[in-house]
């Protein structure tokens, strides 16, 4: 029996070899047959590509992009294989014009159901038919087939400009740049892609520049044809017309007809002859057809677009495919022509959706200021879909500067220069009683807290702009008077503000008796603040020049150029000032004990919320915690901007103060003063009453839940009281806030991790106890703890660590049914965002 089995096996193997040889000998014929059907070529070895089943497709996101290409899209479906031939095909055909275009681009495998693709540039607008292949041979369906055989998707190509009216979130920032701003567009025509850009201020006038330098380099992901073509080399372009003269890979750009342009070829172009033609990207394979210039790999190429040429032409090579890019031709008379050049004030935008993008502000360019009659520097914000043509967000096809300058959506830069605005006058005739009664200053809530002229969305309030312009004129006139004016608006402000942050002086006439007017005044450091009058019934200092004793505070003086009955009760002036640095008012942490507004454990990771004024957003914001008792130096922390009135930072670990506990003090705990910088630590706010207490929570048998505050000198009596006083909002991720309310902000519907610009992450991401923000520590003195407050404990959604401080600690449940922990300890669940978590170190549990 065994012999017969072996013989059969041997025969089977021999037949298999014979069959294999027969198939191999027949491969050339089979290849010839396939070539006749689909022009598929046989590769070396006369073997067909390995069969891989094509995938099926369900969605493409986004499904609309610019014709310049470069839009990264996500295609979902199933059956995607991580193969070298994984690719997507973009096919187009218009029977009415007999126009067609087919491009195949390399795809990036993500998982079985997801791939990513960068769209190719196109010469034709409209909808394209998208299919996918795992091996470059078998596709999800045939080109342009919209029947039921296989699956396909649609991607729309557009050349829409980002016109419309848009608003900005975070309309102010430091002159060093780094502020993250979101721009929302009413028309929903922000198109995704590498050429989507923001520009903060006017561009350089480079329209007369007609020279380009052409080079080559190994293509990176920045090239529109990365991963495609017969080689890895692509063209680069350098010109004052593009990206501030930086070398750019395969960019698209605009040229005017009837203008001669010079393309100078550097030495790297040797063996890659450069020329311009009307051939579309799908035919960029060593083509000599439809030449507009003669190919050359040295010297210069001169090109003069004419009216007979199509709107889209291309630059490429005769020896390698997919090296170049697209050129857009416009009429010589076009008025909306822009060069794309900049004074380093153009940045790449992150596409969020068709009506929302996000940009990080570039540093302030000193020559850019659309409105220099006001504190800070206002620049119009422009957006481009193609990196060439920009629009200013003032509604409609608003075109290029200078028409938009100062009239569209604006961004305000602030630096460390102090300023004092001219006083804005409000007639008090109709509401004198309210001002005499001391009603709080009311700034319209829709206005940005650092400007009474520019609203939160960056748009100009026309009424306030008029009021300010009038105030500037009046101030100039009244300040130079040599005789009495008899004008109610005759207040002159002098001096340099020495305080911090943004503030407003309010000056109100409270006595208008003939010849003896008096005034009251106060200083506001926040919107809608209700502070007491500092002085009332003060005589008006009258002088035609100089500063005759009219000091208010912080270096600011006022005087009137005349006196008499021209004032009425309730006449009011607002004077906005800025001290060139932030102003810290207070600091808080997420705990309930009110003795110390901001407190956290020695091992750090405590989030401090700092309130004040003048926190202009920047990626260079810092918190500094410093003291004079520990000798450890300053603790410098990165700060997270929430609003101009609030920032946050997270503490590092700090050793307790040396020397141990001292009766009558909270040693080894200590306080550090908090200051904030918006310029990477060059300038910090002045010291204030805002302090942070480094201190664990202490519990002792001799403590008190009524009079204790959790410090070593005043410990609590029970563990539950310490849990109540502990830090809340424990999490392994930072919080980002929606800034609809600039004063307080609100958390979004889902808390999410704060990541670098352009990336995101799902939450929660539990990384272990030591990484949690707002975890807290309780130090419990030796002894036996039982009864209410020590058993049946609940962590209240907090993440806590209970540590024996100085000896044996026993928690005796006395066999109570409730046990020691009501629900979930750290060993039972890591879901601290819901139930909380408690760890015990050096603590013994009995009868539980």
From TrEMBL:
<dbReference type="InterPro" id="IPR013783">
    <property type="entry name" value="Ig-like_fold"/>
</dbReference>
<protein>
    <submittedName>
        <fullName>Immunoglobulin-like fold</fullName>
    </submittedName>
</protein>
<dbReference type="InterPro" id="IPR002909">
    <property type="entry name" value="IPT_dom"/>
</dbReference>
<feature type="region of interest" description="Disordered">
    <location>
        <begin position="1"/>
        <end position="20"/>
    </location>
</feature>
<dbReference type="Pfam" id="PF01833">
    <property type="entry name" value="TIG"/>
</dbReference>
<dbReference type="InterPro" id="IPR014756">
    <property type="entry name" value="Ig_E-set"/>
</dbReference>
<feature type="domain" description="IPT/TIG">
    <location>
        <begin position="55"/>
        <end position="143"/>
    </location>
</feature>
């Amino acid at each position: 029996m065994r012999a017969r089995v072996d013989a059969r096996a041997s025969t089977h193997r021999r037949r298999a070899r014979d069959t294999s040889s027969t198939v191999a000998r027949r491969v050339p014929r089979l290849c010839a047959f396939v070539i006749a059907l689909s022009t598929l070529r046989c590769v070396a070895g006369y073997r067909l590509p390995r069969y891989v089943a094509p995938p099926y497709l369900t969605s493409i996101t986004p499904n609309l992009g610019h014709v310049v290409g470069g839009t990264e899209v996500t295609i979902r479906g199933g059956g995607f294989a991580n193969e070298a031939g994984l690719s997507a095909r973009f096919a187009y055909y218009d029977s009415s014009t007999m126009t067609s275009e087919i491009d195949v681009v390399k795809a990036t495998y993500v998982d079985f159901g997801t791939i990513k693709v960068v769209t190719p540039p196109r010469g034709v607008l409209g909808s394209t038919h998208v299919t996918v292949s795992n091996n470059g041979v078998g596709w999800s369906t045939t080109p342009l087939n919209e029947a039921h055989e296989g699956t396909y998707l649609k991607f729309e190509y557009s050349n829409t400009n980002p016109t419309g009216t848009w608003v900005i979130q975070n309309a102010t920032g430091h002159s060093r740049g780094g502020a993250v701003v979101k721009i929302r567009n009413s028309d929903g025509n922000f198109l995704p892609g590498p050429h989507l850009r923001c520009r903060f201020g006017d561009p350089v006038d480079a329209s007369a520049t007609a020279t380009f330098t052409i080079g080559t380099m190994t293509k990176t992901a920045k090239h529109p044809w990365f991963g495609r073509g017969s080689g890895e080399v692509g063209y680069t372009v350098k010109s004052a017309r593009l990206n501030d003269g930086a070398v750019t890979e395969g960019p698209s750009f605009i040229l005017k007809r009837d203008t001669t342009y010079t393309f100078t070829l550097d030495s790297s172009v040797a063996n890659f002859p450069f020329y311009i033609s009307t051939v579309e990207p799908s035919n960029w394979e060593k083509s000599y057809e439809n030449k507009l210039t003669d190919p050359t790999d040295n010297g210069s190429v001169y090109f003069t677009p004419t009216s007979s040429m199509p709107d889209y032409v291309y630059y490429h090579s005769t020896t390698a495919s997919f090296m170049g890019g697209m050129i857009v031709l416009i009429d010589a008379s076009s008025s909306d022509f822009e060069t794309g050049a900049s004074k380093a004030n153009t940045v790449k935008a992150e596409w969020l959706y068709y009506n929302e993008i996000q940009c990080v502000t570039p540093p302030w360019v000193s020559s850019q200021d659309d409105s220099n009659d006001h504190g800070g520097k206002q620049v119009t914000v422009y957006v481009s879909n193609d990196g060439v043509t920009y629009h200013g967000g003032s509604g409609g096809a608003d075109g290029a500067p200078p028409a938009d300058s100062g009239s569209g959506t604006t961004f305000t830069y602030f630096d460390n220069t102090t300023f004092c605005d001219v006083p804005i006058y409000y007639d008090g005739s109709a509401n004198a009683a309210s001002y005499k009664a001391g009603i709080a200053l009311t700034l319209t809530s829709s206005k940005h807290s650092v400007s009474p002229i520019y609203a939160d969305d960056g748009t100009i309030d026309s009424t306030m702009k008029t009021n300010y312009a009038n105030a500037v004129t009046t101030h100039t006139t009244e300040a130079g008077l040599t005789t009495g004016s008899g004008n109610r608006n005759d207040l002159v402000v002098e001096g340099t503000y020495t305080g911090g942050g943004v503030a407003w002086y309010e000056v109100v006439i409270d006595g208008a008796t003939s010849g003896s007017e008096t005034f009251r005044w106060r200083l506001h450091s926040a919107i809608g603040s209700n502070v007491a009058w500092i002085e009332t019934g003060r005589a008006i200092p009258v002088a035609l020049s100089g500063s005759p004793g009219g000091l208010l505070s912080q270096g600011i003086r006022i005087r009137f150029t005349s006196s008499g009955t021209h004032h009425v009760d309730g006449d009011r002036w607002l004077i906005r000032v800025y001290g060139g640095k932030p102003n810290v008012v207070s600091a808080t942490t997420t705990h309930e004990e009110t003795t110390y507004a901001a407190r956290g454990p020695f091992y750090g990771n405590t989030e401090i919320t700092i309130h004040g004024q003048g926190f202009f957003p920047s990626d260079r914001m810092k918190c500094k915690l410093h003291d004079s008792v520990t000798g450890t130096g300053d603790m410098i922390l990165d700060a997270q901007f929430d609003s101009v009135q609030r920032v946050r930072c997270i503490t590092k670990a700090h050793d307790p103060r040396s020397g141990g506990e001292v009766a009558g003090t909270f040693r080894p705990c200590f306080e550090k003063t908090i200051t904030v910088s918006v310029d990477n630590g060059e300038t910090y706010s002045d010291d204030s009453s805002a302090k942070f207490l480094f201190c664990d929570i202490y519990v002792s048998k001799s403590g008190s839940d009524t009079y204790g505050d959790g410090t070593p000198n005043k410990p609590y009596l029970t563990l539950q009281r310490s849990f109540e006083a502990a830090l809340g909002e424990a999490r392994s991720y930072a919080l980002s806030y929606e800034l609809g309310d600039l004063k307080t902000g609100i958390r979004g519907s889902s808390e999410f991790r704060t990541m670098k610009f352009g990336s995101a992450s799902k939450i929660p991401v539990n990384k272990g106890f030591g990484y949690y923000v707002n975890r807290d520590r309780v130090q419990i003195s030796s002894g036996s703890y039982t009864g209410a407050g020590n058993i049946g404990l609940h962590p209240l959604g907090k993440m806590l660590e209970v540590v024996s401080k100085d000896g044996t600690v026993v928690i005796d449940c006395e066999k109570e049914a409730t046990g020691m922990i009501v629900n979930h300890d750290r060993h039972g669940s890591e879901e601290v965002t819901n139930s909380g978590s408690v760890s015990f170190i050096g603590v013994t549990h009995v009868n539980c």
